[in-house]
Design goal:
The complex is a heterodimer of chains A (320) and B (154).
Chain A lengths: L4 H11 L6 H22 L7 E3 H5 L10 E6 L7 H16 L3 E5 L4 E5 L9 E8 L6 H4 L2 E4 L12 E4 L1 H7 L4 H16 L6 H14 L6 H15 L8 E2 L2 E5 L6 H20 L4 H4 L33 E3 L1
Parallel strand pairs in A: 2-5
Antiparallel strand pairs in A: 1-2, 3-4, 4-5, 5-6, 6-7, 8-9
Helix pairs in contact in A: 7-8, 7-9, 8-9, 9-10
Chain B lengths: L1 E4 L4 E4 L2 H13 L6 E8 L5 E8 L4 E3 L4 E3 L5 H11 L2 E10 L7 H12 L9 E7 L4 E10 L2 E4 L2
Parallel strand pairs in B: 2-4, 7-8
Antiparallel strand pairs in B: 1-2, 3-4, 3-7, 5-6, 8-9, 9-10
Classes of the chains: A alpha+beta (320), B alpha+beta (154).
The complex binds zinc ion (ZN).
The site of zinc ion has 6 residues of chain B, from strand 7.
Chain lengths: 320, 154
Amino acid sequence: MATNKQEYLQTVLETHRMSHVEDLVNKFKSKRDEVKDALTSHYGSQIYSPFDSGSFKKHTAINTKFDLDVVVPVKRDSFDTLDKMFDSFYDFLSDEFGENATVRKQTVSIGIIFEEDSDGDVISLDIVPGRELSQDQYSNDKKLNLFVSSDYGIFSSSTYIQTNIQAQIDHIKAKDNERKIIRLLKIWNNNDGKEFKSFLLELITIKAFDTEDISGNLWEKLQQVMTYIKDNVTNDSFKLIDPGNSNNDLMDTLTSWGRTNLSSRMGTMLDRIESNSDNIKGYFPTNSDFEEEDKSSSSGYGVKTGAAAFSTPPDNQRFG
Amino acid sequence: MRFFNKHRNVELIISQELIDEIGIVGVEHFPNEFGGFLTGRYSDDYNTLFINDFVLPKASKGSRFQFVRRSKGMKKFFRKLFQSKKEYYVGEWHTHPNGSTQFSSTDLNAMMEIESAPSVKIKNPVLLILSVTNKKLDNATFYIYDNKKLLPYE
Ligand SMILES: [Zn+2]
């Protein structure tokens, strides 16, 4: 039976909606606040206010994979070197949370993975310390230097990267159409080898929308973005500039084989979905945890669980 | 009048007078599309819907083939309706001038968005489509929205 691709993709997004995991999200948020409070009281005037980043903040999260990052801007004069800053944060977080969490050093962040709670949920947070380039400069332009643990791939030669996380967050602000496509591509990537960075998929989607006239329904938009990726990533001059650092081209994180692979994966998907619309289901699976069961047998008017109050219909509805 | 939907095994009850009243408003806006909200209540067993009134949007824009309605600023209205009469929003209505009562894909998409809105607590809003001419109401069809489908009542 043929699949209505537009309707199907709506269902895919629906079943990956964050609101399905509201309780879990609330647990993440309360742990995050706990960690922020501990950092603020420990470091005091050595740091600026910690702020949230990650897919949750950017509204590109999917409920099978999402991260809550906390960025801690550190004043220039607080630490002599970036690795001292990084070690200080690692030591403090280990002392403070190590008893019921695993605290570990990651590429540019310190990961805190709390022990499973009574519901079986595991809460993990990434804390990203970043030092301003010179004393008091952060308040002007939000630029930070991040320490990079040396044994990580492409950054192996450097020990820090300059970035502007606020600019990265702003880059995706108020882009609802782009976010839907980013979520779909993340769902695909997550389900199909996890070979590509979410950030790369995010930047390439935004670039497609900026460069091409991406329009139509959800499937048509996805199809156009995938075609754009297929046609462009093998081109040597194709760049994806990090909005947080114009010297950082995300395409550099792909080898030439990686570029060819990404292009041909897009091509194959487009061809196979074209030849049989049912194939879309294999690439963009629904999250079966939140699939509405077939209600053909059920009867009566339905009310959403836990809801007793009145409804207010959403604004701006278009009928034809 | 009593309508029945086999798919969810539910009834819909509305007076002929009310349908006629809605029709008059629709004819007044001919040749443009027009519409608004439906209010009422479910029976205690949730098998019967009583539609008791229709509500005009505070702001809307209709043309020959399209109708956009706002609901901004109406939360208070729906709250009062609930508090004073225990009635609530149950669905939408709009006209198809010189057209059939068949829903369009735009209509289905709107109903999908409505059902998925967090401010909407019901899972099966109804859609009433009225075909009108410059003189009169020709025909009216109720649909129940269920799981990304619109299914007519008979
Ligand atoms: Zn219509």
